[in-house]
Prior knowledge:
There is one protein chain. By secondary structure, this protein is α+β, with helices and mostly antiparallel strands. The protein has 2 domains: 4-125 and 262-269, Diaminopimelate Epimerase, Chain A, domain 1 (Roll); 130-254, Diaminopimelate Epimerase, Chain A, domain 1 (Roll), CATH 3.10.310.10. The chain has 5 helices and 17 strands. It has helices at 25-32, 37-45, 84-98, 164-175, 215-227, and strands at 4-10, 13-19, 55-61, 68-74, 103-108, 111-118, 121-126, 130-139, 142-150, 154-158, 185-193, 198-205, 209-211, 237-241, 244-250, 256-261, 263-269. The strands form 2 sheets. Strands 5, 6, 7, 8, 9, 10, 11, 12, 13, 14, 15 and 16 form a 12-stranded mixed beta sheet that branches. The protein has a 5-stranded mixed beta sheet with strand order 4-3-2-1-17, sandwiched between helices. A hairpin with a 3-residue loop joins strand 9 (142-150) and strand 10. The longest helix is centred in the middle third of the chain and has 15 residues, at 84-98.
Amino acid sequence: xxxxxxxxxxxxNDFIIxxxxxxxxETLNSTILNKSWKxxxxxxxxxxxxxxxxxxxxxxxxxEGKLPELLVYNSDxxxxxxxxxxxxCAALHLRDYHDLDKKLKIKIGQKITTCQINKNNVxxxxxxxxxxxxxxxxxxxxxxxxxxVKVPNQxxxxxxxxxxxxxxxxxxxxxxxxxxxxxxNVEFVWPKDQKxxxxxxxxxxxxxxxxxxxxxxxxxxxxxxxxxxxIKINQKINLMFPGGKIVCWIDKNKKVSLQAPCKLVFKxxx
Length: 270
């Protein structure tokens, strides 16, 4: 069983990392395919009865043994396609514990993502984000018009101001709405200082619930703002999550850059 762990956070989005970069792949596979894996993830992510986290990350080598690869599990035990804040934490860990370069590539799902580390700030570039369409749904007799964006995980970006209490009570109804096959991540975004491009954001993550931040959610927001002509190429904006700020922009190659800090919180044995 995986027992030595590292706890990282990036703007309040926290993760338990199991470092299997030099572990035997068969041992790792037998662990995560075991029936006890999902309940194990759920247990250790509980904040009052376990380590406490938004998710679990496993760092390993890819099949060719050339690149680091990141496996991501939500706090409900489900597997996630991508996790930008998790990538940020993994990049910092690989630099500090495996002496990898400050600029490195990590495989996650079907993507290979470039991470650039400057002290404890990590910039991640995301390509091939897809704006699908705008869609209106109804929850408690109230209509919500939002934008469906794939990063590749699905996000529903709603340009509307709400409260964190409302999101805690009703976010699940949007996440699990019949309009979204396989559920969706949900982001509410509204201008804080439109002149200087500051936006407030509240997040309800698929398989997790309300979180302090979401990196792929930030990418979805930036892309939806670009596609709806709210921002331009190379125009930096600041997304203010409850856990902190992500600085974002779209470069001339239409890649989304996301820059934010991360840090090791503690490490231990379970």
